[in-house]
Design goal:
Oligomer: single chain
Number of strands: 13
Radius of gyration: 19 Å
Shape: globular
Structural class: alpha/beta
Mean pLDDT: 93
Strand order of the largest sheet: 12-11-7-10-9-8-13
Pfam family, one: GFO_IDH_MocA
Strand content: 15-25%
Number of helices: 12
Protein name: Dehydrogenase
GO molecular function: nucleotide binding
Length: 334
């Protein structure tokens, strides 16, 4: 009852504040990813979408990873790109927060999301946190815990989740999902645990189709690919293939009573943006905290399996390790 009341009050307060103004002002943290410029183009460009026109990116704080070269090298160019769309560049997150109603935390480096998100949470501003919500399972748990402490609605997602085909499968249009095989590129980033930086796209596709309830995981690895097998509590099996060598492709196969159905691939950022904007207006996250945390638990368990030469690892064991890490992080912010 207490949780239902909190959700209702959050919905009413966010909705009243945002519906009462002509344009809802968005701030972006992190101009070290193409997501930032893509969202700015969609929001501040020449779209004739009436819903999109209710929003505008008005400010951006550009930083940003300081150690991932492919990220920090983009910042100067992306600053100039968003300025062409009338976006003000701020010198701090605090300055940005004074100018906006909602926040897109886009920083490419998941390791600094908790630190940056804490500033947003303390301001009370509703926030979308781009993938990965944190670099590790522990950070992901800590971010959700701190968001709840400050009563700030958040959610995080890959655009792959909202491929129209994946949503049809998710919503049961082909019948019950009996199992899935999903794939995406897996670009190894030494600063992040495996899959957390990029392979998360394919893992999110897997969870979009299968839902929560995985109980154990094992993994086989080579220099060209990684394959992770998850067994769900109801006996269903889902796999994720992280492609390290070969074409950068996204997709999969869902097994249903109607046969093997192709999963959806990448279809741009507009499908995700629509979900973000709806979230900003309602304060209701389209993905549960539990599902996002289970995605990170799945990745954590897969890494533990790899370290143990493919041994089956339970999700419970992986979660306990992540929770212990989260508790240490949370103590630093109390």
């Amino acid at each position: 009852m207490k949780n239902i009341l909190f959700i209702l009050l959050t919905f009413l307060s966010v909705s009243f504040r945002l519906y009462a103004q002509d344009v809802i002002k968005i701030g972006i943290i992190g101009l070290d990813t193409s997501h930032s410029t893509a969202f700015t183009e969609l929001l501040n460009g020449d779209s004739d979408d009436k819903f999109v026109k209710e929003f505008e990116v008005v400010a951006a704080y550009p930083y940003g990873s300081k150690t991932i070269q492919s990220s920090y090298e983009r910042i100067p160019g992306y600053i100039e790109e968003v300025k062409k769309h009338g976006v003000e560049i701020t010198s701090s997150i605090a300055e940005l927060l004074d100018k906006v109603d909602c926040v897109m935390l886009e920083t490419n480096d998941g390791r600094i999301h908790l630190e940056q998100a804490m500033e947003v949470f303390k301001s009370g501003k509703i926030s979308y946190i781009d993938k990965p919500i944190g670099a590790t399972l522990g950070q992901a748990i800590a971010i959700y815990e701190m968001a709840e402490k400050y009563n700030v609605p958040i959610f995080s997602s890959s655009a792959l989740r909202y491929s129209p085909q994946n949503q049809k499968l998710r919503n049961g249009e082909f019948g019950k999902i009996l199992g899935t095989d999903c794939y995406s590129p897996h670009k190894v980033e030494p600063t992040h645990p495996d899959f957390g930086f990029y392979g998360i796209h394919g893992v999110e596709t897997l969870y979009t189709l299968m839902g929560t309830g995985c109980e154990s995981v094992n993994r086989m690895s080579s220099q060209d690919a990684d394959v992770v097998v998850g067994r769900w509590k109801d006996g269903r099996i889902g796999t994720f293939r992280g492609i390290k060598e070969g074409p950068a492709i996204y997709g999969g196969t869902a097994y249903t009573p109607k046969g093997a159905i192709a999963a959806g691939g990448y279809e741009g950022y507009k499908v995700l943006l629509d979900q973000i904007l709806t979230f900003f207006k309602t304060g209701v996250a389209p993905i549960s905290k539990e599902e996002t945390i289970e995605i990170f638990t799945f990745m954590k368990a897969s890494n533990m399996s790899k370290e143990q030469n493919g041994k089956i690892v339970t999700m419970e064991e992986a979660y306990r390790k992540g929770l212990k890490d989260a508790q240490k992080l949370i103590k630093t912010y109390k």
